Amino acid sequence: MINQIINQVSEVPLEGITYKKLRLGKKPLTPEYVPPPPELVPAAKRAVCIDPSRTCMPFGAMWATLGVHRAIPFVQGAQGCTTYVRYTFSRVFREPASIASASFHEDAAVFGGRKNLVRGIRNLVCRYKPELIAIVTTCSSEVIGDDIQSFLAEALEMMEEEFGPEVLDLTKFVVVHTPSFAGSHVEGYNRAAREFLKALSRQSGQPSEDLYFIPGFLLPGDLRELKHLLELMGVPFHILFDISDTLDCPLVGMPNRIPYYPPGGTRVEEFVRAGDARAIFALSPDAGAAGAKWLSRRYQVPAFVLPMPLGVGHTDRLLKTVSEISGRPIPEAIRWERGILLDAMADTLHYTMMKRVALAGDPDFVAAATRFVCELGMIPTYILVGTKSASAAEEIWKVCEEYNYQPVIMNGSDQFEWEYALKQDPPDLILGHSRCVNISKEIRVPLVRFGFPVYDRIGYQREPIVGYRGGERFLARIVNAILDHHYPDDRTHQ
Amino acid sequence: MGGPIVDVIQMIHAPVGCGYYTWGTRRHLGDVYNWAAPGVLENEAHHRRHCYTTAMTEQDIIFGGAEKLKRALLEAFRINPGAQGAIIYNTCSTALIGDDIEQVAREVSAEVGKPVFACASPGFCGVSQSKGHHEFNTQFYRWLLDYRKKHPELGLKEEEKTPYDVNIIGDYNIDWDLVPVIPLFEKLGLRIICVFTGNARIRDLFRLPDARLNIVHCQRSATYIAELLREGYEIPLVRVSLFGMAQTAKALRDVAAWFGEKEMMRRAEEIIEEETAAVEPALSWYRERLSGKRVAIYVGAPRVWHWVKVMEELGMEVVACMTTFGHREDYEKIVQRVKPGTLIIDNPNEFEIEEMIETCRPDLFLTGLKEKYLIRKFGVPTLNSHSYEAGPYAGFRGMVNFARDIYQAVCAPVWDLARTEF
User: What is the ipTM of this complex?
Assistant: First the structure.
């Protein structure tokens, strides 16, 4: 194993030891394949979770916070709760993400995190001067039972005494309770959406025509595509938790100082005016709907919980709703884009029709993508919904009934169960995230990456999959994967 | 510390995130893989094919998770019969609710007849991950001795031992660092019975006490166990650095000198000469292009002082050193190695890093993934020094990779384009 060729060459070339030269034969743990006991395949029958397709609740709350201008999440927990999340942001976006940690040690575990929060908030306010701090709790602070509101009150009092009353106007605070044992990152985002609006939004009595959008885990490219559509519609709009210009920023032209605050992100003021909105849209039923529903209950702002605008039907639905609410017609430019997507679908139907596809990922992505693959004439086979979701399951059933397919839906299961099904009955294509690479290699079925997380390929965060143009790009990704893997090179010419 | 062990179930007893984040992210690679399907064993990329976690829910937190952990572990052994043992890690939440993971480990171990080690590693324990390293060392050592006492057959028999048995302590096989390192010692005539813990098998780890000498590489995270082995088994240790030409050469000379055999010392010189000849042409090409560049180093702890001399061998000047979890002796070693006037910061915050960039003006910043993208926004090239860009970086031959990646970072045309008036 170790005695590689590279150790024997008499002169190491400039390129060094490349991965090709490092190719190592893997050794199996057992002499031959041992199938898992059948009764242990379904995740519901196991105590052990093998290969989860979801991560922790604080992550979702931090994602939302990083979409707010000059906002910093303050994580009330041990350092790891911050470090690993920052790693994840770095991997997915290849961008910095400033997140503060209360840095729990033994004393916090014994005496509670009061000291950590009070001192941490003070440091953060006077060193970073953020416009907003989202206090994100963790498993440990929730188990200990930290009384965040009283800690925060103490911190504010202390700062007022030290810096004068002006300090109270500097920074807004939002508290999001995210014990990871009570849900996944999807729920974390959902809670953050509600808590931000709860803490910040007001009604001035002067209603506006503005449409508000809570995007969920849409990536910068998707958000830009969404803005493009809304600009073409000519409606005034605000996107809450807009990470497009905070987690995707240029190398030059930035104010490269510490604290590093990217120019983008939703302004606090936009949250404040949300109570006057004409309507609020949640574009991910599981990640954000709680915010839209709260706003609707509190200020009677009409709330629309729509599926992610992925594919023809879902994008149609969003635009029609926007058109109805705003009274503005859908312009020719958008019809043109729709036509281009339909054209692309017609041109590629022989590649997509009847291809069997397995899907995995977060509920909102998977539910929306299921409709899109059905529109392409593909047959969904095994669908892993990483976080258990009633709305996603319902949506998937609805579309499959419409197109007359009977996929297996693994709602809230783990990848082990899903992958085992794929090994028994390989599809033609997998739509999933970066954690699906192993199964894709093992069963030699191409993987088309989408959703969260994609960290092993470049540019996915910038390439939209929503809207008609995004749909066309997503279609191209799918068809090219099929062409690469399922067609001989001399049959791909037309 | 336990992650690089390749043939055990790594059971994270925690809510779902703790397992998720530690699954297949750090690049400590191994050559073991599970069968995917009959006849299919081909994935080159990952050693940790599966992530096992108890994915604690609210119910479990309220009523305790020890029962669930036991069931989960027994299931994991049934699903993965090739596993030679298991390590249970508890985390903040499961430590706070007081799940007795040691008891579970004992019970499961007795039931399946395989070693199960319970590592208490809640996130709030200690100042940083350094405490986690320390805990793993001492807990693992205690458990190891205990288990060996009950299963004496796990140690090397007298007749299997050779006078040249050594352990490499504190190398985690990041990006296959072991590939250029292990043959160096084998050519000396040594037999490496265990690496703690890069690409390690659990049965090899039980043989740790059977070596004649411990060669200690990472002197922050793993010196502890080497010292415990010295106290408990009178196994001496040689501290080495396996980065860079001079340090790797010194490592071979020191190890050979410990054995005190003329023949081995001669072989060491032979290896050094041969290896130097193999990499010198490439290195001189890089040295020519990197000469005079200024570099700042910010990594865990030991790599900072391991790398000061390495940078100088590439003709570069070290202008600042920072560590996240360095202890007193790490800083002493840094101070011994750097030139007077070099800036040294302990656990710097972003403001200190900014000031460092302004005052020291580095041409290159060696750092981890989290800071890498932040510092790039300042127009300063960075290199992922935790998991590497494309390793291995250790040993003589790995040095070419290290030099290549530094050259690529510093001399990429993009930096000039970014500075061009537009």
Answer: 0.95
